[in-house]
């Protein structure tokens, strides 16, 4: 997502509320996907709660990394 010519902001469009909402959605959706995958695999393989916990951690890490990438300063030259 390249910034529009002449814009000075480094965050994606949508203002403060938009960026905050997007960060929240990134974390929650990554957690939901991780929990769903872990729950499904545990039910299928009968390993409750180990894969559920593992994928909960993976989802948490993925959500935090997504928010980090959202707020990471972008270099202008690329």
Automatic annotation (TrEMBL):
Domain of life: Bacteria
UniProt xrefs under InterPro entries: ATPase_put
Pfam hit, one: ATPase_gene1
Keyword annotations from UniProtKB, A to Z: Membrane, Transmembrane, Transmembrane helix
Transmembrane intervals: 21-41, 47-68
Protein name: AtpZ/AtpI family protein
Species assigned in the record: Falsiroseomonas algicola
């Amino acid at each position: 997502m390249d910034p529009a010519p002449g814009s000075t902001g480094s965050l994606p469009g949508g203002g403060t509320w938009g960026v905050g909402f997007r960060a929240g959605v990134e974390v929650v959706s990554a957690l939901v996907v991780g929990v769903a995958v872990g729950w499904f695999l545990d039910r299928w393989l009968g390993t409750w709660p180990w894969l559920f916990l593992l994928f909960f951690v993976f989802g948490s890490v993925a959500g935090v990394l997504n928010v980090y990438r959202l707020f990471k300063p972008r270099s202008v030259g690329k």
